[in-house]
Amino acid sequence: MQAASAAQLFQSDTSLAIGRERAAKAERTARGGEYGYPIWIGTHSSPLPGNTAASPDAPPPDVRALATKAAGADGGLAKAITAHLASPGDRCIWTAESGRLARATDIESGECVQQLRGHTAPVSALASLQVGERLLMFTASWDKSIRVWAAGTEKRPVPLVVVPDAASDFIKALHVDAAHACLVSGGSDKVVRVWDVAPLRAWAEQQTADSWASPRGCPAPRVVDTVRAHTRPVLSLASLPPAPVDAPAADDVPTECTIFSGDSMGRILQITIAWREGREGQCEIVRELDGPETGVLHISPLWRMDDDDTQYTAEVWTTSADKSVRRFPLSARARRGVAPGRVSHAGAAHGKLSSLRADVVLPLRDAAKAVLPLSQLGSAYSDLLLVGHDDGDVDVWRVSTPPELVRVLDGHWHEVTFLDAWRRADNTLWILSASLDGTIRRWPLAEVLHPPAPSSAPVPSLLTAEEEAELAELMDE
C-alpha cells in the first residue's frame, strides 16, 4: 500500500483538487518571460535577459516537487507573506517569509544576497528607512517583536536593535514615513503605534564606511503615541507621501504627516500626527474612509495630476476581502461621484470630519491583497491600475467610465501578496510581484501594457517529405 504524502493528509477532496491544479500551473509557469521571468525564492539564480554578470539560468531543481509539497497547503516552500522595495531603482527586493526570516534577493540575478534571521515566528511585515547610501530595515513578526537591521553589511547579520514586546499580539503591518522619521506598526492587538526613528537616522548618518561594516550602538525606536480606535486587528498601514514640487497641490488635501490604517472589519482611519518640540507626537483621527465591508488588505495613497493637468491631487486606493478595489479622492475637486458606503455597521464613525466615500469601485472575482496604481509613474499611465488576486493572477484595469479589465497576467499559482514598480538600470520600467507560491516575478511594463503579438512563424509539419508528397497526390485526385 502506497503511503500518502504529507501534503495530502487531513485534506478534503476539494483541497486536494485545488492542490493538483496549483501543482500543474506551477510546472507550466516555472520559467520564461511570458510568466514574469520567475525567481524561485532561495533556490537558484534566475538572471534577466541581458544580464551577463549573473550565473547562467538553470531550471529549478524539481519544479514538480516544489509544487507538490505545497499542494493544497498554504503555498510554496518560501512563502512571501509580503515584500518590500526600498526605492524604485533599488537592486534588491525584500521578502517577509513564513520560515521566520526576511530575505534580500537581487532582482537582476535572482540570487539571495542577505538573510535576516532571528524571529521565532513568521515574519509578517517589512519597512525601510534610507539614510544616504545606507539602508535600515525593519522587520516585524507574529512573535510580537520588531527588529532593526543594517542592510547589505553581512550575509546573515545580527540585528542592530530588538524590541521584544513591540505589541501584545501578532504584528501584521509596518510602515515608515521617511519624511517625518516615524515608524508605524499595527496588528492583532488593534493598536496603531507611532515610533520615533529620528535618532536612528541621526545615528546612521554618523557612521563611516568602516563602522557601517560592523555597526554598533544603534538607538532603539521609541513609541510617541498610540491610536486605539480600531475594534478589530489592524491589517494595513500607509502614509501620504510628500507632494510633488513641480506643480501646486490642491488646497484641500493634507499637508501634515498623514497615516491611513485599515482593519479586518473594513474600517479605515485617516490620522494626522503633529510633531511637537522634543519629537513628541500627537495623533488625531481626522475621518474615516467609508466603503469596504470587511478586511482592508492593502492601502496605497499617492499624488496624481488632476484631469486638467494644472495641479496635483491626492487619492487613496484600497483592496478588501469583500472583493473590491476602491478609490478615495482626498480633494473634493477630483471626485467623479460618490459610491455607496458600507452596508454593515461598525459603530459610530470616528473623526472630526464626515466620513469620505469612494468615487470608483472595481468589483473583483475574488479577494486581492495588492493594488498598484500606475498613475504614480506619470500622466501617461494615469488611468491604469494593477490588482494582484488570491487566485494568483494579476489584472490590468483601465479606470475609465465604466472601468474596464484590459488584461490578465498569468503566472503565480497562489495568492499575490505584493506589487510594485521597479526601474531597471537601463531606465526601463518593470512590475514586480510576489506570492505565497514562493516566487517573485518580473514583468516588463511595456509588454504588460502592449503584449507581443502571437508569433506568425509557420508551424513545422509533423509529416515527412514522402508523406507530404503522398498527401498532395491524394488531394489532387
From TrEMBL:
<protein>
    <recommendedName>
        <fullName>WD40 repeat-like protein</fullName>
    </recommendedName>
</protein>
<dbReference type="InterPro" id="IPR019775">
    <property type="entry name" value="WD40_repeat_CS"/>
</dbReference>
<dbReference type="Pfam" id="PF00400">
    <property type="entry name" value="WD40"/>
</dbReference>
<dbReference type="GO" id="GO:1990234">
    <property type="term" value="C:transferase complex"/>
</dbReference>
<keyword id="KW-0853">WD repeat</keyword>
<keyword id="KW-0677">Repeat</keyword>
<dbReference type="InterPro" id="IPR036322">
    <property type="entry name" value="WD40_repeat_dom_sf"/>
</dbReference>
<dbReference type="InterPro" id="IPR001680">
    <property type="entry name" value="WD40_rpt"/>
</dbReference>
<feature type="repeat" description="WD">
    <location>
        <begin position="183"/>
        <end position="197"/>
    </location>
</feature>
<dbReference type="InterPro" id="IPR020472">
    <property type="entry name" value="WD40_PAC1"/>
</dbReference>
<feature type="repeat" description="WD">
    <location>
        <begin position="116"/>
        <end position="149"/>
    </location>
</feature>
<dbReference type="InterPro" id="IPR015943">
    <property type="entry name" value="WD40/YVTN_repeat-like_dom_sf"/>
</dbReference>
